[in-house]
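Limitations
The structure tokens in this dataset are predictions for the assembled complex, not deposited experimental models. Users should treat interface geometry with appropriate caution, especially where small molecules or nucleic acid strands are included. An illustrative entry is reproduced here so readers can see what is and is not provided.
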Amino acid sequence: MQLDLNRRSGVPMYRQLAAQLREQIVSGALAAGYRLPPERELAARLEVNRTTVLQAYQQLKDEHLIASRVGKGTFVASVESGASVGREGDPRTPRTTRTPAVVHTIRDGAAPASDAAEPPVIRPPWSVLFSDYSNRFTYHDIAEADRAQRGSGGRDAHVIDFATGSPNPADIPDDLLRAVSLEAFASHEFDGQPESPIEGFDELRDLLARHMRDRGVGCDARNVMVLSGSEQGIDLIVRAFVNPGDHVLVEQSTFFPALQTFRSADARIVGVPVDADGMRTDLLEGYCARFRPKLIYTIPTFHNPTGTTMPMERRRTLIDVAHRYQCLVVEDDAYGDLWYGSADEGRPVPLAGMENSGYVMYLSTFSKTVTSGLRTGWVVADPHVVARLAALRRMVDQHTSTSSQRICLELLKEGRIAGHVAGLTRAYRARRDATVAALERWAPDGMRWSVPAGGYYVWVALPDGVRSLDLLARCRARGVTFMPGGVFDVDETDDAHIRLNMVRPDAADVALGVRVIAECTRRCAENRSQ
Amino acid sequence: MQLDLNRRSGVPMYRQLAAQLREQIVSGALAAGYRLPPERELAARLEVNRTTVLQAYQQLKDEHLIASRVGKGTFVASVESGASVGREGDPRTPRTTRTPAVVHTIRDGAAPASDAAEPPVIRPPWSVLFSDYSNRFTYHDIAEADRAQRGSGGRDAHVIDFATGSPNPADIPDDLLRAVSLEAFASHEFDGQPESPIEGFDELRDLLARHMRDRGVGCDARNVMVLSGSEQGIDLIVRAFVNPGDHVLVEQSTFFPALQTFRSADARIVGVPVDADGMRTDLLEGYCARFRPKLIYTIPTFHNPTGTTMPMERRRTLIDVAHRYQCLVVEDDAYGDLWYGSADEGRPVPLAGMENSGYVMYLSTFSKTVTSGLRTGWVVADPHVVARLAALRRMVDQHTSTSSQRICLELLKEGRIAGHVAGLTRAYRARRDATVAALERWAPDGMRWSVPAGGYYVWVALPDGVRSLDLLARCRARGVTFMPGGVFDVDETDDAHIRLNMVRPDAADVALGVRVIAECTRRCAENRSQ
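Predicted assembly:
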């Protein structure tokens, strides 16, 4: 056993000792069963403090490379006992007999030629290698959402798409985007500023803070961090705050990527019932007392998927309960700009505009008003939170694409985006009215909905006995898609509702689409009655 | 106890029952201690299957809302016992006496006026609310890296910056980027395609596959997914594959955001020793036998931070061991395009070009050759892996910014990027040579380094007794920064090395910068000797 410590190195002595022993154990130079010198003896031999040897041995014990038995001393552990530190029941079968290296020569990207004499390489056993979390993840609602969306979208002109949660391509302001992009890139303003601060360019944070003040949220640039879409904010907030086992309260049906993100952190998700006025805040105190949640995730305005908007009284209750239980609130406000009411009704004030002690973290995005292709959203939060999210983001994507930020800067300057949103709101209000009118005209008995005050979605309760997945299959056969309610449900079992994105289809298709859904619903109901 | 089940609803009966009981318990309508009817009795009363009641009760037991005692029946649990489902020792102190709601009126973004009669809201106890993981995270190397980097960068002209891991702003091809951006956005090619597929635009995936084939990696567009920087690939791969407790092998010193990402998944990170030829693959079999790692993360070419390049023989060994232990390999090749050798030396072939059964996942980026502001990288992997990463990415950022993708498309077309990289390589080779010449001229006894064949970094071993953090403090006082070795070390204890980004400073500053480091090193060594 050769050991050679450098007592003037910047690497602590115990680490040098552990590293040298580790290498000799792993390489086989010290065989399994080899008895290591007692700590006191080795310390004397190396002329180091006994603690140094103690720490080195402890580290190697933690790595299962050595083991002590009382009265017998310290031994090199066998590979088998070492191997047991891996996942129990690991079904991978290492081929421990040494086979020749499998190396291919690649020429011009042609498929590599395999040497026939070599034993074949076992292809990766994917289902074993994938993490438990990701195996569960794929199995769940993603696949379902995909099924609902496949074949929809702009490419197949025959589909009437109430499913997809993004704008109709025809509503994307291509000309405006082209104009601002050309301005953004013709300018020399950003030369020598190729990278952005993690939190985003100062000028953009400033304009976003102004945009937020227009919405009724008092904040300045220090409260704002530019995100690569508001979804990224949920992910960062979860990393920053949620420990495994923490409880998170959500509306019983909600934005499903948020559910997946909470699951990814092993949070316990508790659904709070929703009625026509959004989250049942009368129950909230009970839920907080029972579950002591770390945070409440809510979409109080033009809710996805239910289209509901929480009245001021409920908002006050929510904030009051959050304060008393020191529970954080994540307010997801992706749709807040798309309000179809009139001035005398009073525009909903965001929770973040009613609270200034730091409990509410506010998320929004340009994905619903301009295009999700920009991948630009933002969070408004206490500077403590902004700093923490920025630190965590270093290991994710560093900052939002510089080109996207430049485009958003130009969009926000001189109120160009406000003009676009005003026009979009007019068009969307008309589509909302058309959808509701069509529902009133065609809907069969037992189908219920409420009229959303803004946003994208109308949430339709199906007549008794009609299952959303059966209805979806029928409608898709007739070229109409929507999202089945189960996708959004905390328990993934709600088969009694469907979500219609009333602003996604071409305006001319809305009435026909609703009529097809109504007819198919009637068929489903008849089938159930037989 | 009023219960009203709808047997034709799409919501399963047991869920309806659980939801109604939950609401009554949480609202207090059913008080703590209330005895629920026995399962059989309730089933008869509701005319449902006994299993329905069993399932509903089980769900509520899992939520700690009800509890059974043998021989006594099933009772509503008290809030106290319910509250115990929260984190033990949760130091948040709910103010359970109801206080008036705290609501502010915001006008023009002014600070909200507080009603003096109301009890003050307790500000969020951040350190309690932050997750354990994020509290650890911030405390670790990020702060250190920040300290090393603060004040550096292009804005303070007096700093000679060997620290920052991105290009010198003067090396960013502003004119090329402006030209391709204007072309990209003037074109109508992407009208009506505002969003990208998760994996990236087909045309870009195709061009990246061609780029990879030029590097010796056989692949096609199906193997390529566009990322928002290659770091995002590490994050997605970790989510897809790493279970808590899985072992991950890395070079003993490595790209530190990768370490943070592995830690975020509660992986056990094991450092494999590195010498002048990179990872000690002679030890790899022993590490795999001992630890059965889920994956090996490696930077085989122009390693960060050590500047080493694995010879072909080691690459073959690594792949062979990975095959036999069915261990995945993440090859991080951020610097592979920046090779300073001559044609007869033979350019290093990526691991991904030597393996085609799916074990190697390859990551690269435009951040080191163009600008990290683009936030565009890519992964090359088996289509199974691409599909899984795409599914997981839905909850992160959906896809890479459309504008960044368009710019990269234009860059790759007609070999424009190849021309830029060729020029950059010439400039960087000269800076590498200048750095090495300065080290040879000025370095004090005991300072050691090897000459990197490409990439950004030269890794300098300090003379015995000189600590990297002491040296950094001295150098920063004289306007020179670099990264201390501990930032990259798996154990965060290496204080004996420093990393110099030899291509980051202005060419004219390299010699002066190295001379300052050499002089400060000599001072540190003298101080130690006294």
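Some entries come with short summary sentences. For this one: Chain A touches chain B through 171 residues (CB under 8 Å).
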